[in-house]
Every structure is written in structure tokens, then in C-alpha cells.
């Protein structure tokens, strides 16, 4: 059985008191929650007795404290516990799909003598490369724009998608990725490079600025150094998985257990996580099933409303999976980025740490662009027209269109 696994902490950072992990089946089995594991670093009852009655023994209760290590260890321990429990229940896991940010596989092999195959998540691979590119962008000696970073990430996605099951193909294409951006196509392969497929047509990089190749030698050397460890991992990248359904389940938990509230002192968090798992597996019908198990009426209105929500849920899932919908999301994201950059260029620094303490803050804003007028031809009743020649002077902010600032004119009579 193949499972997608991911863990989330209830609070940001590495000081959270709880975590929850989801084991979810793949698409062929309906993307259902197979196992949900909740870990607690504290117990509210135990803390109260130790604080208020330290000399007495803690009363009998259902203690939720089940993790004594650090927060970073919770993901590995939770995954190990979930795999072992699934093995005991007769549902052995053979393949794990997820990020490579923990040592769960090594712990299972060392402590439980369980060997699993690991498939890394494709999105995490691309995001990790993006983090390295943005770190390189922070270096002032390297000229690397956001558009170039997005273009390189898109090329990496193409390489990973087109060469699954072919480690040699991934290695060759990753080696050719950086030279390809600098118009060096000696290492490119025809299935991936448009220049090699048809040399009779002038090749242009559609996603790079000005649709032309990059020309900075220093940037090329930095990018080649950045992709060296990625090329060495080509065998691992040839068989990738996805844990996106786990990301969806983790987001659903935040609806019932917001991160601004603490439910980890008792079993309240466990109930909320398991209710989320039931909602993902059975939709809203799980409420009626719980009522039936308890000997209560399932509710006619509840069943109708659950059917209506389930139909809407399927329509949204089908629409969101269409290539046109995904393409539209990317277009909207790019439009927002361009609009944001244009507005920030017209405005001055308006939000920054401790900017309100300054007395000479610049709040001026460049004027908006003048809309194009609706001009119509003029017919003179008598006489000859007068011709006026204009010389247009503009400024050039960090936007696509310049702003006119000066109109000198000269009159010529004919």
C-alpha cells in the first residue's frame, strides 16, 4: 500500500506543544484518510496537579502526554507510530510519499526493522530549489529577478514531469537547464528544447524578460553551482510522489482547531482531528452516521444538505483540476505581482519597520497615467491649418509604461 504522509504543528516555529499527522491513500483508493496521529507534549491535568498539589499523586485520568522529545522529533516519531500501528492492524505500508524533512525511514529501519520505499514530494523539491534561488537573489553581487526565478522553477517542473522513471533523462536535462537559459544549447535534448526541435524558427524564451537569453557570466556560474547537488539527486527525482492531499487535510484541521486557540491540554484536539478525518472520508454524511450509531435520528434536512454539499464539492474538484483553471490561477498570480510592483514604484516607502518614528517620511505619490483621449477629426470652415511639432519628455519609473512630464512645442505656419 502507498500512503502520502505529512505532519503539521499547531503553532508556527519549533515551540509547539502538539502536532498532527495524516496518512492518506492515493487517488486510486479515493484519497481517504487511513490514519491520523496526534502527539502531545503536555497534559493539562498533570500540569494542574504538579502546580497546585505537588505533594500528592496525580489522580487517575486519560493522560494525553505521549511525547517527551523536542518539537523537531515529533514528525519522525508520529510517522513511525502510525506505520507501526497500521502494520499491527493488518494494513502494511510499503511506499511513503512526502517531503524529505525528517528521519522517519531511518527510525523505522533501525527500531522496528521495517523497510519502506520513499517517494519525495514534487512540490517540495521545486520549492526547495526556489528557496535557494531567492537566497541567491539576496546577494547584491548577483542580478537575479523574480521573473527569472519563476521561469527556472517552471523549467524544473517540466523536466520532472516529462522524465519520470528515467534517471538518465533527468540528469541530462538538469545539466542542460542552466546553459539553456544563456543560449547554449549544446547539451539540450530535442523533446525539451524548442531550439533543437526546429532550428528554422527563431527561438525565444517566452517567460524570460524581453524573451531573450540571459547574459551574465557571474549569474551563470552561481546557478551552475546551485544545481550541482540537484543533478546528483537525479536517481531520487526519477520516481516522485505527491502529498498534496495531506496539505488539504492539514488546512481543514485549522477550521475546527484554529492556531490561535490551544486544545492540546486534553483530548479535545484529538476529537477535532478525527472529526476532520471523518469529514474528508465521508463528507458531511459522517454527522448523520454518528447520530445513527448513537440511536438518534439522522435528520432528513441534514441528509439533504449533505448531499447538496457533496455535489458542490465534486463540481469544484473537477473544475479545479482542469488545465485551463490552473493556467488562469498562474495568470492571476502574475498579474497581481506586476500590479503590486507598479503601485510600489509609483508610491514611496509607506510600510516599513519603525518608519512611523521618522519626521521626514516621504508620502508623495507620482500622478496616475493620463487616460487616452477620444480625438475626432476637425474640419476648418476656412483658412489653412497651423502645424505644431511636439517633443515629448518622459520619466521612467519601474513600470512598463513611462509617464510624460514635459511638452515643449513649436508652431509652424503654412
Structural overview:
The structure is a single chain. This protein has 414 residues and is an alpha/beta fold. Among the domains are: 2-120 and 245-282; 123-237. It contains 14 helices and nine strands. It has helices at residues 44-52, 74-88, 104-111, 122-137, 146-162, 167-181, 194-197, 217-232, 234-237, 244-256, 268-282, 285-293, 300-320, 323-346; strands at residues 2-9, 18-25, 33-40, 95-98, 117-120, 386-390, 393-395, 403-406, 409-413. The strands form three sheets. A five-stranded mixed sheet has the order 3-2-1-4-5, sandwiched between helices. It has a two-stranded antiparallel sheet with strand order 6-9. A two-stranded antiparallel sheet has the order 7-8. Strand 4, helix 3 (104-111) and strand 5 form a beta-alpha-beta unit. Helix 4 (122-137) runs antiparallel to helix 8 (217-232) and helix 10 (244-256) crosses helix 11. It is extended. 20% of the residues are buried.
